[in-house]
Structures are given as C-alpha cells and as structure tokens.
Amino acid sequence: MARRKEDGSAPDHVAMGDRLREVRKSRGLSLRGLAQRLGVSPSFISQVETGRAKPSVSTLYAMVNELGISLDELLFIDARPVAAAGGQPTVMPGLPGFPLPVDPVQRSEGRSSIRLASGVVWERLTTASIPNVDFFHVTYEVGGASSTELEFQRHAGQEWGYVISGSLGVRIGFEDHLLRAGDAITFHASTPHRLFNAGDEPVHSVWFVVGRGSADLGSLAPGLTGDPA
After folding, report:
1. Right CATH for 10-75 from 1.10.260.40, 3.40.50.1820, 2.30.130.10, 3.40.50.300
2. For 33, phi and psi rounded to 5 degrees?
3. Is 222 exposed, middle or buried (0-12, 13-18, 19+ CB in 10 A)?
4. Contact at 8 Å (CB) between 129 and 75?
5. For 100-151, what is each residue's pLDDT tens digit?
6. 96-224: same fold as 10-75?
7. Which CATH class is domain 96-224?
8. SS3 187
9. Which sequence spans correspond to the domains of the chain?
10. Terminus of the chain with fewer CB atoms < 10 Å: N or C?
C-alpha cells in the first residue's frame, strides 16, 4: 500500500473492503445483519466494502469487535503470523507470543497507511503486522477526531501516545487533557476515551498499543453508553 494517498480513496480502502466482505460472509452475516448489529445502514456497509466510503475510528472498532478479528487484520491485509528464516516466529524478548517481522527496519517512504473518515491517518511503523500490537504514526488533521464530540470508544489493551507536533485533546472518562509537542500519555483503553485535534494545525503523534485484541469491547455513544456510530 502506498503512503499518504492524497485522495484518501484508493487501494487501501478497496483492500480493506474486500477483507470486510470476506470476513462478514465467513461469519454468515448479510449486509443488513451486520449493519443492524453496528447501528449503521446496509448501504454504508456496502460502500465500505467497495471502497467508496471510509469508516470512522469508532466504526472500525465496532466492526472488528463484532466480527471477532483484530484491527490490524482488517486494515492491513498482510496481517498474519510472521516467521523467521527458519520457519519459526521470532519472539519479542519479555513478551512471549509476539513474533517480530523478519525485516526490522520500516523506511518512512514505504509505510502502510490508511485515512479514515474522521480526519485521522494511521501509518504502521512496522514492516509487517505484529499480533495484538499496534505501533502507528497517527495524524489528526485539522478538525480530525477519533469519534464525534459526544461519542467515545473503548477496547482492550494499554495505550501509550507521544505528540510530535500540534495540540491533541484527550478525554479519558470524565477527565480532559491537552497534549502539546513533547507530551506523552498512557491509559487503559478499556476506559471510554476520545482523541481530537485541539488546534489549527495537524497533529503528528506516535501510538503504541498492546493487547487491543484480547477482549470484546466496543465504542460508546453519548453518556458513555449506547451504540457505535
């Protein structure tokens, strides 16, 4: 996948849509059935599957939770266990079961990326997917957010974030934080949270998440309860 496609449409979303359709059908779900579970329209699901619509961050979480797959598996089609030259996974020291990619260096010009409907761009900072681990460069465009103003998401795992530039607003539960360049944050992702650009320039940040796929938690709507967007 090419990096930072300016039109935000293209093969990234087509490939993601193909994967979504494949998994949905393997679960025996119709377009209407999945849409009903997610609280969206069947036409929206159809548009995502054909690459004509981009989901928001909160809708992505709802999709992967409902289908029982990892976020990485849906976004990046190469998501699979990575084996070393001898055929056995290279395990990350201190974290049993986390295989490392064979190629340790991810060049900036070759990052896999995807732009979401909510004005957020995720770029993977590893050469291949690592099960249950996310290591992303995340851009929040001006006005961009992980969800709408009255919506929150939650999922399994622990998040660490570092802001490179810009002003990032983070609401965790009922607490508000403003992060500027050089600031960092960590929190349990099971706590309802929302991230948004709080300034007039793009926010560039790095995020590391461990354990996102270890439980079935969805996004939360107004009042911290409800259906996903």
Report:
1. 1.10.260.40
2. -65, -45
3. exposed
4. no
5. 777 889 999 988 888 888 899 999 998 887 777 889 999 999 999 998 888 8
6. no
7. mainly beta
8. strand
9. 10-75, 96-224
10. N
Cα 190 to Cα 212: distance, rounded to the nearest angstrom:
9
Q: What is the pLDDT of residues 68-100, one digit of tens each?
A: 877 777 877 665 433 333 444 344 444 555 667
Q: Is the pTM of this model over 0.85?
A: no
How far apart are the C-alpha atoms of 119 and 189, rounded to whole Å?
Answer: 21
Q: Report the pLDDT value the prediction gives residue 53, as an integer from 0 to 100.
A: 87
Give me the helices (H) in 68-144, please: 71-75
- The bridge status of strand 168-172 relative to strand 133-140 is unpaired
The answer to whether the Cα torsion of 109, 111, 115, 118 is positive or negative is negative
